[in-house]
Amino acid sequence: MDLYNLLEKLTDADGVSGDENDICALITDEFPECKTTITDGNLVVFLSEIDPAKKTVLIDAHIDRIGFIVTQITENGFLRVGNIGKTDMRILPASRVYVGKNRYPGIICTKPPHLSDKDTKPFSVSDILIDVGMKKADTEKIISPGDRILLHEKFSKLEGDVVAASALDNRAGAAAVIAAGKKILETTHEYNVVLLFSSCEEVTERGAIISSFNINPDIALVVDVTFAKTHGENSNCGETKGGVMIGVSASLDKDLSKELITIAKKKNIPYQIEVMSSRTGTNADVIAVSRGGVKASTLSIPIKFMHTQSETVSIFDIEKTVDLIVEFVRS
Q1: pTM of the predicted model, to two decimals?
Q2: What is the 3-state secondary structure (H, E, C) of 281-292?
Q3: Quick one: which of 190, 262, 266, 176 has its CA closest to 221?
Q4: Is 157 contained in some domain?
Q5: Which residues of the chain have a pLDDT value below 50?
Q6: Are residues 210 and 310 in the same domain?
Q7: Whole-angstrom Cα distance, residue 5 to residue 185?
Q8: Cis, bond preceding 170 (omega within 30 deg of 0)
Q9: Which of 175, 186, 241, 309 is spaced 20 to 30 A from 115 at the CA atom?
């Protein structure tokens, strides 16, 4: 499967938290032969009919992306906004944004350096004004409070197999789950396998809470991204091109994490260990405690520059995540 083209398509799609139906429809097209359901921004893909005699494996990747929401149109036609997810505020001044489904362009206002030498106040969401180039009356004709706002840069290839794009958190994980799902369809295994492309992870984890309760899995693999080393970070960060990161945490199932490590070793799949002392900060935290409890672990893909519009990832690390998912299901 061409992960480059798949990633480009996924990262270009809308889907700020709470508005995921478009990205759900896009992913549905990847599984024309499967039963699918879309509910409240969550896409569930059943790779086969559910057999009550078999255990059910849930493979989850959240598909929402960070962004903003229009809260007010000022008298001068500028947009005030609220934060959706934890955007890196340091990179916002003068950033290009796109507003609403029609992607009206705008620029986050900033003072020229000539006029702001003494302005050392940290940038916060309350400081944001977006200039869409129109007076209030004209702005109100095409933009409304509640419209989502994208921080967006086009997908591009860097050296080697590294790519840069917006929304790699977590469209990289979604790409891995799509590619793994297609391979699982072609292999023999003893599980019911259900894919979940979940909503609202960046704000409430609502999608995973609702869907894991409805699916009622026995085992869950949560595929997300994690921090890759750039410079100066601690040893818990992953290495780009180091392979899939297997989660080890007090909130994850110890035996499942050990099993994933054993499979990676046996199948010569490059992997790294991601140690998290308590919560993982992923959907695994809520899926693990769904209903009577689910054996859950995380598979993470290291990315750089998280929660900016220029995240980077290695295709190799996505491929190794796919390999481990497929080998786990085969085992």
Answers
A1: 0.94
A2: CCCHHHHCCCCC
A3: 176
A4: no
A5: none
A6: yes
A7: 21
A8: yes
A9: 309
